[in-house]
Batch of 2 targets.
Target 1
Amino acid sequence: MPAPFAPLRSFQWDPARQVERLDWLLAQLPRYADWGYQQLHLHLEDAVEFPSLPGVARRDAYSYRQFTRLVDEATRVGIQVVPIVNLLGHTQYLVKVPELRDLNELRADDGSPFPGGQICPLHPRTMEIAEKLLRDMAPFCTAGRVHVGLDESFQLGRHPMSRAEIARVGLAGHFAAHVRRLHALTRSLGLRMGMWADMLYFLPDAIPQLPTDIIAYEWYYYGFPRRPRVELFNFAESDLGDRLRARGMTVWGCPMNGSARYEPLPHFTDRLENILSWWRHGARLGVEGLLVTSWEPFRLAMEMTTVVDAAAATLWLNPGVTDPKEMLTRGFARVFGSRSAAKSARLALAGDRYPFGGYPRWEINDRWDTVSRREPLGPFLAEEKFCTRAAARGQPALPAPLQASLEFRRYLAQRDVFVRRAARGLATAAEGRRFARAITAGLRAARAMWRFTRDRRRHGTNEQILVRDAARLRAWQAGKPVFGGTWQLCYVVHNAFPALQSVRVEQQQPDGTWVSQQECLTIEFQTASAQPRGQMRREHAAPVAWDGDRAKLPRLRLALIGVGEVRIERPVLTDGITTLPARLARANLGRRAPRRGLPELDWSKRQDILPLAWPSTRRPGR
C-alpha cells in the first residue's frame, strides 16, 4: 500500500497588502499550530523594517522588534517561518525609494528610470540591495529557507543592459542567471531558496539551467480536474509540476484562501475546490508541501480567510472528509466554536450564488457613470432580496465577523439597485433617503469588519468607498450629474477566450486625439470562468459626450489592452429613449492568447482597435 499523502503544511499572511494588529496575529499562531500547520510564509515587501535599508519600510510597517516577537511566538508554538522577500517582480517597494529608483528595469527615452516598475537583474546595485534585504531577514528564516518571489515579472528584459544579455543567452537564460545569483547569495547565508514557479510557464528553457535544490512553489487559484492551468495562455493545462519533478526539484502546491481583489467575502465554494484540487494533484505529483496562500485581504474581515485555513486543515485532521460543506462547517467550528458552525457554513456557501466578483461589478466602487442604463434590474433585485434575508437570518447567532460581512454585502446589493434605478431616472427622493440610511448601516458594517483585526485609528478601504458613495448621493440629491451626460454607449463583452484582457472605450476629440471614456478588465476570478472557452457575458457602459446632433455623430472605438481576445455584442448608443445600434466590422476584438513564451503585458499599448459606426436610428421596441 502506498504511504498516505502527508505534505508539509503552511499558511501565509500578506502584510505587504494589509497589516494586521500584532496582538491579533500573535493570538492566531497557537490556533494554527493546533490545526496542524507547520510553517508560516510571510509576504513582506515594505511591511517590515529593514535596518540596512531604512527608507524601504512604510509608515505602518512592523518594526524589527515587533517582527522578532512574531517569529519568536511562532517558534514557541512549533511553527517555522519563511519570509518572502520579492527580488524581481513586485519590487515597487524598492523602486519607490528615490535612492533606489535607478534599480528600475523601465526607462524613459532619455534613460532615466520611471517611478514605477520592477528591478533590473543586471543593475550594478541589485545584488548589493538583495544581500542587505536577505541579511536583515535571515534571523527570521527559522525554517532554514527564504522565498525570493520572482513571480509575474512581466517587465523582464526591457533595460538596455538586460537586452544586451538576452541577445547572447536568450530571455530564459537571462532569467535563469538571475535565479542562480540569488541562489548563490542565499546559500552564502546558510539558507535554501524558494521561488514562485509561474515564470517557468513562460520560460521553460530556464528549467534545466536552475539549481535542483531550489524549491518551486506552483500556484493556481481555481479548481481544476487534472492539472493547473495558465491564465495568460487562455487557461491551457500545464504539466510544469511534472517537468520540475523530473528535473529533481522540490515542488510545493499553492491554493488560495481568500477573496479576489475587491470581494467582501471569499467565494467559499471556489476556495475549497481549489484546495481540494491541489490536495489531489499534490498527492499524484509528490509535492513536498501545501501552502495555502492569502492575498490582498483588505476588503474583507480577516477571520473569513482564517476560516478557510481552518477548513483546509480538515484534510489532515479528519482524513477522508472532502465534502466542502462539511469542511467549511468544521472550519467555522475551529475558529468560532461549534454552536453556529453549521448555520454559518450554510449561509456562507449560499452566498456563493451571488458573488460580488469581477471588474465589471467593481467599477461601481469608483464611478457611477459606467452603470448601464439598459441592463435588466431583475437579477439585481433578486440579489438584494437574498442578501437582505441572509443578513437578517444571521441575527443573533452568527459570529460577529461573518455577520458584519453579510451586512456589508447587503449594502453592496442595495447600492447596485439604487444606482441603477437612479441612472434611469426612476429613483425617488424617498429612495434616496432610504439609500442614505443604507450607507450609514454599511459604514457600521465596514468599520466592524476592519476593526476586528486592524488599527482602529485608520480607515479601511471599504469605508473609503462608502464615504465616496455618500458624496455621490448628496450630489445626486442636489441635482448634479453623477451619471455622466445624456448619452451612453452600452455594450456586452463576451469573455469567450479568457486570458488577461482589458477593454477600453475611446472617443475622438475635436483635435483628433482619442481619449479613454471607460476601461475594464475582463478577468472574473471564478472557477466557472477559468476555462479556455468562456461563457461569461458582462454588460458594460461608457459615458459619451454628444449633444444628439445626428449630423455630428460621435466617433467611438473599442480597444483591447493586455493579452487575449473577446467578443463584442449588442453595442448601442442610447439616451434611454432613442437607440442607435452600432455596426461592427467584426465581432472579435484582440487576438488569441499565445500558448508559449512570455506574453507582452504592456498596459499602455493597444493590441487591437475596433471602430464603431452608426448606420441607422431606431426607438426601443421598433
Note: The chain has three domains: 10-338, 359-477, 487-611.
Target 2
Amino acid sequence: MRGIIATLATVWRIASPYFWSEDRWPGRILLAAVIAIELTIVGITVLLNSWNANFYNALQNKDWNAFVYQLGYFTILAAVFVGLAVYQLYLNQWLQIRWRRWLTRHYLDEWLAGANHYRMQLYGEAADNPDQRIAEDVTSFVSSTLSISIQLLSSLVTLFSFMVILWNLSAAAPLHLFGIDYNIPGYLLWAALIYAVIGTALTHLIGRPLIALNFQQQRYEADFRFNLVRVRENAEQIALLEGEAAERDRLLMRFGNVVSNWLAIMSRQKKLTFFTATYSQAAVVFPFIMVSPAYFAGAMQLGGLMQTANAFGRVQDALSIFVTLYRSLADWRAVIERLDGFDRSVVSAQALAVTPPVVEVTPGDGQAIIITIKDLAVKLPTGAPLIAARDLTIGAGEHVLVTGPSGSGKSTFFRALAGIWPFGSGAVHVPKGARVMMLPQRPYFPIAPLAAAVAYPLEPDSADNAAIGDLIAAAGLPGLVPRLEEEAHWNRMLSLGEQQRLGIARALLLKPDYLFLDEATASLDEAAEAAVYKLLQERLPGTTIVSIGHRSTLAAFHRRRLNVEREAEGSRLSEGTLAPAE
C-alpha cells in the first residue's frame, strides 16, 4: 500500500500542474468531456445488459415482433456507442497533445534553465538520457495516465452498476445444486469477487519483476542509441584511429545488455501470459458454470441466463482490471520512476547552484567597470581543490593572458567565472549590465542555416545576413559567404580551425564587453592566430579580452598575464610577467 500511495503521489505531482496552468481550462474541459463520454458508454453497457435478456427471450419464445423490435433497439444503442467511441478517441488525443506540449515545455524550461543541463551532467548517471525522458517518457506518461485512469474509472462505475444487477439476479436465480436451492444473498457477486481477487494476487506475484525489467530495458535501449549517435558524430576520429573494431565491440557489448534484459522480459511475460490467457479463457465459461444449474432447473429463461452471464462478466472484468492492465501498469510505473528521477535530478542541480558553499557570480556594486574576484577557491565535484584566486581584478579594455600547465584548472576557472561551475567558494562580481561571452576551444553551432548558426544564441532574423557574411569573410572564411542560407551540421562539416574562425565571427557580431577565449584559436597556425587577434583589437577596441593559451606568440596581443602555478593542493592563479614574443 505504501508503494501504491507513493506512486499515486508522484503521478499527482507530475500530472496536476498542467490542470492549473495557463492551459488549464481547455485541458479541464477536454478531460471532463472524455470522462462524461466514458460514463455514458458505461450507461449504454447497462442498457445492453437488459437488452440481452429481452433479445434471447424473444429468440427462445420465437416472438418475431419482439425480435425485430430488439434488433432496432440494438441498432440505436450501437450507433450511439460508435459515435461516442469515435469522439472519445478524438477528444482524448486532443487532450494528449495539449498536455504533452505543456509538459514538454515545462521539462525543457527546467532542464535548460540557468545551465541546469550542465550541472545535471556532473552527476553522471543520476539523470541519464534526458533526451529520452523528454521525448519518449513524457509521451508515454500522458497517454498511459489518461488510458489507465479512464479504464480504472470505467471499471469502478461498471462495478457498482452491475453489482446491483448481479445481486438482484442472484435472488431471482438462487444457487441450485443436487436438486436443492441455496439462498445465498448475492452469491454471483461473491463468486465474481473471489475469482477476481485470486486472479489479481497471482498476476501480481508472477508479473511484479516486469516493473524493474521494463525500467532497465528503456535504460539499456537509450544507452545503446546514445552510443550509436556518438559513433556517428565522431566518425572522422574513429576512422583515423582505425577504431571500427573497438567501437563495434563496445556497441555489441551495450546491445548485449539490451538482448539479455529482453530475454528476461520474455521469460517473465511468458509466465504472465500463460496465466492471464488461462484466466481470461476460464472467465468466459465461469459465469455459465455458476448459473447453469438454475437455468436447467427451469428457474430462469435463456434471456436471464445470458443477462446473468453478461453481468457476471462485466463485474468480473471490472474486478480483474489489475490483471488486464498489468503489463501497461508495469510500463507506466517504469515511466513514472524515470520522470521522477529526472525531476529529482533537476531539483538537485538547482540546489547545487545556490546551496553554500558555492561560487557566487553577482553584479558589481555602483558604477564599477571591472570584474572583481574575491577569495575564489574552485574545487572538483569530489571536493578536492583545483584552482584558487585570492584577490584579482580585470579592468575594462584590458587584454589578459592566462597561462599554466595543462590540467591545472584554467578552463574550469573560466567556467566558474561564467557561473556554471558550482563547486567551490568565493565571489565574482561582474559589472552591472555587462555582456560576457565565453568562447571555448570547440564552439557549438546548431543545425541551422549558416547565418543563424553564427548568430546563435540570437534569434535567426535578428542580424543582417550581409553583415554576418562580412564578418565571416573578415575571420578568414570568404568561401563560406555564399552558403549563408544553407542548413547543415556545421560542427561535423567544418574542420576545428574553421569552426574556431566562425566562433570569432560570432564574437565580432555579438560585441561582448568581456570576451573569454579558452584556447579558442589553438587550431590555427601562428600567422592565422595573429591575424585573428589583430581583427579582434580592430573590431572590438573597447572589449576586455581574457585568453587561455600556451603559445609564446600570444604575448604580443596581451598587456597582462595571469599565471597558474601548481601547489601541494591544487593550483593558484597569480600575477605574472609577459615574456616577449619570439
Note: The chain has a mean pLDDT of 87.
